[in-house]
Backbone:
């Protein structure tokens, strides 16, 4: 049990780490279907942009079989620090990466990546070790199978990480719909088909009012 | 591990928070089948009435795509405080809601709602932060999929919430069948088909005795 | 492959056989959850009443461990022929039952019951043998497990039965919403929570128009 | 068993029927996840456009709780016949719809829609009855649950329909990659994340060659 | 579709083939849990004894890694023909086995064994080829996994075999409870815990009557 | 995390509580198949007898729809304290039950029952509150569905209970095969078909040695 | 239903078609886990070699994103016809491929490949159209998901293909263990861990005999 | 929650315990498919060899029905201490075993074995009790079913063990790809088919560069 029951995401105090969403590594992900996973990763990326969260990209061995970063992430975050690690498996073992994290000056970290048990879990544990509050975006992280997923989640939970999805994170960051109804609505509408359907029905029915 | 192994529901010290069971939001629920979910929500509502538990209703954006509160809940709890939140995603961020909770004078809170990761999880964490004992009714709460459910449960467990179903809550509140056999039996019979079948068989077989 | 691609339900030429929905036997049903199953059986029953379809009830060993007929079915169809079979496992082996079927003068039979592999499958095969067009309501029929379900469905399909659910049957019988929008809408609203939610949202949004 | 083992899709002899992909009805679909389903429906729509297949849109009760057609389909097929049925559940019972089908002069029909057991199954059976070769796009059609899906597929198979997915249909229509590598590659890349990843990796690795 | 819709089991015209239920081969069975599977095999064996059906036992390579016949089967059927095949994989390729089958003079065959795709499927196909009516007891047959099971069932269905479980077979053989209530009740009570519970409840409730 | 990593079962310091394994309540159990569940309950019962563990039986409302205790348990433990509770849902609220527990003089409790969330969970929490080390036999306890099971396990884990199966408990109690090879082997052979198969193969192969 | 109940594999009259097992395409396979799938494909390949079956390899677009043939297949079948198709999706549309098939002079074809719905299904349907008896090795063929798999299997079944696994095929080809116990045993031992375990246990236990 | 968030595997301070991977016991494993499981166990074994980790083998009752150690493990670790326990179920109760562990001088232990709930869980708990940091390789450990697996994992987590898979352990031990790209690449390529495919594609595409 955490010491403090509610460690709450604060959009002014959070940075986002996107770890190793590379085209080759994505073929290893089998605990979540590829079309759902792509949607979640892009939703998380849109969320970072929407809340203007400092975002850090990192990859391992891009020029080898792991493949390049998914191009959509590079395009969405053109000015984000981009650390192509020369060999470190745990991104936190890379000095440039840690410097980039510290340069944000934030105390809360949102982390997602591929594969969950390694590329996500290792820097999450390292960041917890250094006293950060860490939030793992479970549905924008993927790994080999459910057995691996369960073990990875267990290890991070035990160490004090909080698990949530991109939707939960977005809601916790936004706090109040009145801050911007249209912006958040668009984010949800673009990535939650059921929500888009609600809005489409609603718009038509109230059109003539 | 909780400090105190057994924090037990006490019908004289509990209030119930039903959060955002709205017709639009219900279309987002996919971790539990809709007919089962409807049955569970109505069972929880009947349980509140049966034990005369102070109940608080709240909704978000009722006039928008989220849709109105499920009409059965409004009808069942006509005198319950009803807080239509103007924008706060976490109900606990709404002053009127917190006032209504505090006005009950209870120390234990039962919470259920849609979607689990946000509308349930956020006020649960806030209430734990303020020292309440919180019981989440898992089967009257719903969310997007199993992955989201698992993450939401994990976060609430870590913070000290207790998870149970409406049936478990009803049994813990009732303590002893002799307090009212017929009343509890009716509650179960109306919402647990297997239990109704037992009673029907029993009634026929003992009819002539 | 059927000789005729489309053998279509015709509300003027169909009778319904509800076989052995008894309280004891229902405890054997484990290929569908009990609350879903109850909802489906009552939906089918309401459908029979709505379309005024001649309906025949039958049971086996009601006074023994199989238990009495589910009381809701008896109440809904007070004037239906009710054949309490003295021992025949296949209802079609009971002369009174077959007479009741023939007395309806219909050529199409809708069948549902418990358990699928026996109480449904046997009379379905017998009726096919005698030249009836048979429609099995899969979701108002239940059995021990998925393996049994698959075997039972396979045998009935091979023999020429058509499989569908109560919803599909209702739609095929109704043909055109304009025949009665409110009636069919009520039937669906009472047994399909998602559909009821759509209607509730719609009703509120268009209330002021 | 079909009389002719291989009835093969021919892009010069096929029309596409998109039935009732309406925002309200989509909330009933629970045999396929909403983000996957949306992707499949849009993929099928893109396929129709890519192969310039005559496409017919139809809806039921658009102004009621079923909701409007998904806007993306209307936008993608602005000149397609659009039959808003006044009440017929089986689209084939609507004269305008059948006229539109016949006006295409095609002998093969691709059908997808919501919900599978009714809005897809009924016109599929009617079209088979009239001698068309019918191909059901299973993954762009959705329904209440797996039990309903299995029953619907069984009925259509028995009547002679062929089941395949949008990807299978696209491959069978295209016949030979040399007809247009880039076009088909783009269609797949836009809707199959794994395939896009292969292409991204390939493009980078061969960039400097 | 079968030529005759209802080919019905007749206890006077059926023989049972139990193929290769050997202790080693049983470790390969993973499409059904071992405790359920054991229960089903013993239930089938008890059924054979109860209806006094001529039963034939056969094994392959008993002295090698496949292991000996499950001892319970040998004990239950001490006088059954027992063909330890010297090498034939398809039992029907063994002359002694076919002779034993023909010596029963029956036209209907019930078959179960391990593994489904080979030891069951091969003699089933051979027997169908020779004009027998064949009934496969699916839940007393086991194989490597669900994929293998589905392929094996598909092949046997296509060839005209009927699939059912031991319970379905027992009911079809018995025809009428009045033939012997206690005997059949005991068979079910010994192998269907839910049924035993019904009987236990019933017996107590009616004890004092 | 427990204070002491390894709280180990000690056959000289453990008592067993079998709670509400009644024929009616068993029809509510759907998170484990009935034949597996029966096997597990009987295995646990045999284990108690084998290790001569003091065992306490209790039931609720035996004369009502919950039904009588499963007769096998009564027969196996004829001299066990048998507390038919007049109404208390939590067995620990019954003075006679607690007296019987205390009379054993043991500090460790093994608990199993129906349904997990109530009849098991409540006395487990109460016993933990009083300082007992509690071991829940998960596979001899059953409840409505997986969602309820997960919630019940979570609550007991949080309070400090240890989860294991009857097999794990038997192994931990036995410590060393040399204490009695044949006795433990028989227990396993009677309830683990795979283990029996190993022994049967082994026995035959070494028979002539 | 097939005209002839038992069309049986004959090792003297069968050729094997391995279609598009390419490293890129394999990343699309998600209806079977990658380690199981690899094992099955290599088992099928070993089976071809063991029975000296004429085998034909084919690929599509090897130099593009689909990637090269899995190297193990090329090594195992160095002299097999190897048709790198320039663009045809259906291998049967490639003249060289059909020539290679016809050059074998066989009437039975075993087919496996990636993805099932296209690369397997299309040549299977074409071969059936030309009168071949076709056997699909389901577990050495893979595709996007279960929904696609079911549709693909359905279409091939309807057209008259027989479904089985590599193990079933091997057994049917071998006919009698006495033809070569060691050879077949080695094939199974190398690809079925459970079988290898049986043999290892057996070998040790009988070592001293 | 652990006291120290990140207890990290250190290849210089870790020993590996492989417990009871015996041919007979492996037939009991049903929470993971046999081909996947074999692959994982051999991968773990290769990992031990690659990192030159001191490895200890132990078995129970090798000459009885549990069967001999899987021969591959014996061959891979010819010089490893090999403790054939005469009867202790918990390997930690065997003095020679504990001596062998202590002789390694390591503080971290990696443990895997069959069955998880007993042969893994017991020594894991004992080692934690003595102050070791323990890492359980979940996917090279197997047990009867998922229910047992969940209970076993829960107990070990509560006591402070860390769960991970062989892949996660290998990555954490390696730290940096630059330590040896080819060696780790070969390990992954031999046991992760998806990874091998990436490398094969990559190698071909970059061959001519």
Residues:
């Amino acid at each position: 049990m955490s010491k403090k029951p509610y460690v709450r995401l604060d959009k002014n105090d959070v940075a986002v780490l996107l770890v190793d969403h590379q085209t080759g590594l994505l073929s290893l992900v089998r605990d979540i279907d590829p079309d759902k996973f792509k949607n979640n990763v892009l939703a998380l990326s849109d969320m970072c942009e929407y809340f203007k969260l400092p975002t850090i990209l990192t990859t391992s061995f891009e020029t080898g079989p792991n493949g390049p970063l998914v191009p959509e992430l590079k395009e969405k975050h053109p000015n984000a620090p981009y650390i192509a690690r020369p060999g470190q498996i745990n991104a936190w073992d890379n000095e440039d990466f840690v410097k980039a994290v510290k340069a944000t000056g934030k105390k809360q970290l949102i982390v997602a990546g591929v594969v969950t048990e390694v590329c996500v879990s290792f820097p999450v544990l390292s960041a917890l070790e250094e006293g950060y509050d860490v939030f793992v975006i479970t549905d924008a992280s993927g790994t080999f199978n459910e057995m691996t997923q369960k073990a990875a989640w267990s290890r991070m939970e035990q160490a004090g990480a909080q698990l949530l999805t991109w939707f939960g994170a977005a809601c916790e960051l936004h706090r109040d719909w009145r801050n911007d109804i249209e912006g958040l609505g668009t984010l949800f509408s673009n990535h939650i088909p059921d929500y888009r359907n609600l809005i489409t029905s609603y718009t038509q029915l109230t059109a003539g009012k």
In short: The beta strands of chain G are 14-19, 55-60, 82-85, 108-113, 133-137, 162-164. The two ends of chain G are 51 Å apart (CA to CA). The mean pLDDT of chain G is 95.
